[in-house]
Amino acid sequence: MQIISRIVGIDTQVQRWLDRQQYPALLTKFMRCLSLAGSEGLIWFILSGWLSFRLQRFDPVLLLGMAELVQFAVVGLGLKMAVKRQRPHADREQILFYLKLDEYAFPSGHAASSFAALPVLAFFAPELTVGLAGLAGVVSISRLYLGRHYVSDIGAGICIGYAIGWICLRIYLQIV
Predict the structure, then answer these.
(1) How many angstroms separate the CA atoms of 141 and 139, rounded?
(2) How many domains in the chain?
(3) What's the pLDDT score for residue 171?
(4) Residue 10 forms part of a structural domain
(5) Residue 8 lies in a domain
(6) H or E segment and range at residue 13
(7) What pLDDT score was predicted for residue 38?
(8) Which of 6, 11, 32, 164 is most buried, with most CB under 10 Å away?
(9) Where are the alpha helices (DSSP H) in 21-150?
(10) Of 87, 110, 143, 148, which residue is the catalytic one?
(11) Distance, CA of 93 to CA of 124 (rounded, Å)
(12) Is residue 116 part of a domain?
């Protein structure tokens, strides 16, 4: 229990520091765009479609779909509903699409989705690995910036998402 208290303390300190910062309006708009692009894995499905077209095979879309489905079941339907951690600032971001499933913060679905996509897409386009990792990172950070998550929500989402993507990739490699 002491470890959880320390994590919550760090989350609170970081959030208070973020709340005191003055951010340029353009940066906030950019972060909102990144957050929206990461919603429901949108940017990752667009990239997997592009890869499928480039490679003339449908595997990137199918494998990403499998990883995102598992990620949604584990994070969106499982952990978020079990933990029910409130978001730091539910009203700070103008939410375009509000789902009842998305009212809880832990773990971050955007981070989990982004990092579940990373090993999958990097397998099909290893030359894009650094760029994909950077994009996954900034999508995740956008959620912290917008006050939708605590640091630990993001960290847990990254770890869980990457593990799911990696496991789905291993299963795929066993099948093909």
Answers:
(1) 6
(2) 1
(3) 93
(4) no
(5) no
(6) helix 2-20
(7) 82
(8) 164
(9) 25-38, 42-55, 59-71, 80-83, 109-124, 129-145
(10) 110
(11) 34
(12) yes
Whether 107 is in a domain gets the answer: yes
Cβ neighbours, 10 Å, residue 70? 17
Residue with tokens 């320390």, as numbered in its chain: 6
pTM over 0.85: no
Catalytic one of 105, 149, 157, 158: 149
Is 89 one of the catalytic residues?
no
Phi/psi for 104 (5° steps) reads -105, 155
Q: Given CA atoms 159, 160, 165, 170 in this order, what sign does their dihedral have?
A: positive
Domain hosting 65: range is: 25-175
- Is pLDDT at 94 greater than 50 in this prediction? no
Q: Is 110 a catalytic residue?
A: yes
Structure tokens given for 63? 């494998």
| Residue for token pair 């480039």 | 54
CA separation, residue 35 to residues 71, 81, 123, 176 (Å):
17, 21, 24, 34
